[in-house]
Amino acid sequence: MTSEPALTRVELGALGEQLAVEHLLAQGLQIVDRNWRCRYGELDIVAADTSSRTAVFVEVKTRTGDGFGGLAYAVPPQKVRRLRRLTSLWLAGQDRRWATVRLDVIGVRIGRCRTPELTHVQGVG
């Protein structure tokens, strides 16, 4: 019996982000930006809900299990503050105006031989 090699951390993260993008598209959102970086950090996904003119900033957390406490512990308050700062910087560089802005977290759990599980928490910050 051969098993597939384990994914590296980078590969695991990329797979989680791709699954999150597919989930957001299925929810009717448009992807505006991915892996936007500046000197203060990175935004994983920026999506748009065009019907409500909402900019949705999505932090993706990919895990292979619940060993680190699950999604509730993945984005502590200091991370939310940093993400808010990044969203402000991203918005400042845009010509488009948004009615509202939302920060979401999508948790992706990829276990062995199982379909990935996604948890989408809206409005965390």
From TrEMBL:
Under CDD domains, the record lists: PoNe_Nuclease (cd20736)
What InterPro entries does this protein map onto?
Answer: Restrct_endonuc-II-like, tRNA_endonuc-like_dom_sf, UPF0102_YraN-like
UniProt xrefs under Pfam families: UPF0102
Q: Which family does the UniProt entry place this protein in? A: Belongs to the UPF0102 family.
HAMAP family membership: UPF0102 (MF_00048)
Name this protein carries in UniProt: UPF0102 protein H7J73_21945
